[in-house]
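YM 10:42: Carbon starvation protein A sequence, as discussed on the call
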Amino acid sequence: MNAILLMLLGLGAMFLGYVFYSKFIAEKIFKLDPNFRTPAHEFNDGVDFVPTNKYVLWGHHFTSVAGAAPIIGPAIAVIWGWVPAFLWVVFGTIFFAGVHDAGAIWASNRNKARSIGALTGDIVGKRSQTLFMIVIFLVLLMVNAVFATAISGLLINFPSSVVPVWGAIFVALIIGQFIFRKWMNLGTVSIIGVIALYALIWAGPSVPIELPQSFLGVSDNAQWILVLFFYAAIASLLPVWVLLQPRDYINGLQLFIGLILVYSAVLISGPELVAPAFNNNTPEGTPSMVPLLFVTIACGAISGFHGLVASGTTSKQLDKETDLRFVGYFGAIGEGSLSLATIIAATAGFATLADWQAVYHSFGQGGVAAFVQGGANILQNGIGLNVDIAQTLLTVMAVLFAGTTMDTGLRLQRYIFQEWGHIYNIKWMEKAAPATLLAVGSCLLLAFGAGGADGAGGLLIWPLFGTTNQLLAGLTLLVITTILVKLGRPMYFTLIPLLFLLVMTIYALLIQLMGFYQKSDWFLFGLDLVVLIAAIWIALESAATLTKLRRERNQA
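YM 10:58: structure's back
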């Protein structure tokens, strides 16, 4: 099959989903009110609560949720064939992710921009809140620790990406001042920022930068991890308009230009999908497609991490409530389009089936490397882009998104510690600086305590990211569904995705539990057991809460 047809079907379906389905959800289910006074205006402090132009806010939300995961997940999942991955990305984006992301912003916006974790205690119950906070902490710990490892690996393997990756931070700092202080209109600032960013990408291969393989006994991988967390700690304490918003915005523009280049190259070259539609000869050790497909591809179909961003930072910057349709639902569409591009790059970017099979020789192979390799080949064949420049472009895309996710993730982890300080009356923990130190410390403890001097400890618990992340998405949908029931509005548009995720997550956790037991991996076995108990508990809480609410409404 030609990749052009797959691209047109996927993008066309997601476009129709935004035009029609998101409008129905916004007007009939959430009933968005343009006159509602958002928390960004009510609590405007110039640091976390800042009313923001919807295009800039879309850039923040989109790039914060679109880390490396929408590349890694689909580029691994195509081992089962491109059809299952394609269907889950497209339909998951339209009916799951868009509703989930917009719903999380809506629920938080209507409750003084409180996080989904904080809302759970009031809306569902204190027991669910305790479980929710544990799951949130685990997800953020995994995301921050693992993305730091992923970024450091890319910076080492592709030294040409170092200059554009770090140069983008200085570009963001400058355009942030221009946007916030309104020294120049948004269109002009955007053009200048994009030109500067692509100039850095063009210059990158000419000035590759490599850290010493060992410095004072610290490996280059560990050096980059320490630098990344030092940067993320500072970034998480700065007012959002200084770095977070402009960096996310310019990265969002950069991604869309990158996607336009990739999709244009597909249209021009018309590559064939060399991977099988359904792979009946998967390598030995590859797990069953059901349910693992639905947790391997999380970001790009539906992801619990999105709910943390939506209710943790995005809702604090919402200028008008009606903006959340564009910011939340269209943000999910943007991530779905990235996942679709990843599927095409990882299945049509190889010359032959044998070349593809050489990469996908075991489960877990592919990932960012397949995206960069396959995507660079398509760019070279389609628009004649030099392969080194193409690899740098795609690597920078992956690193910048992983980096912005780290920025937001560490800020959210700081919020979690501050909320715990408020809940348990620990005054010093409610302050930003100590909470940030705790957030960084917990990530470094996992990275170096479990991973040794190389700092790759986050990879130890990464196998549970997919299931834990989808459990978190189920919790977010539970909160949204409960609010809808209380308001007497239709709940099936969130209840069906909730039930599907709970079933698939529990099923996947059971399969993983057996695998860890057979390997005698008692650390992951114990952690899996904790998450499994939480999933079952949440399923029971969901049933009890929704049944009680429906009974009360019927009696009223």
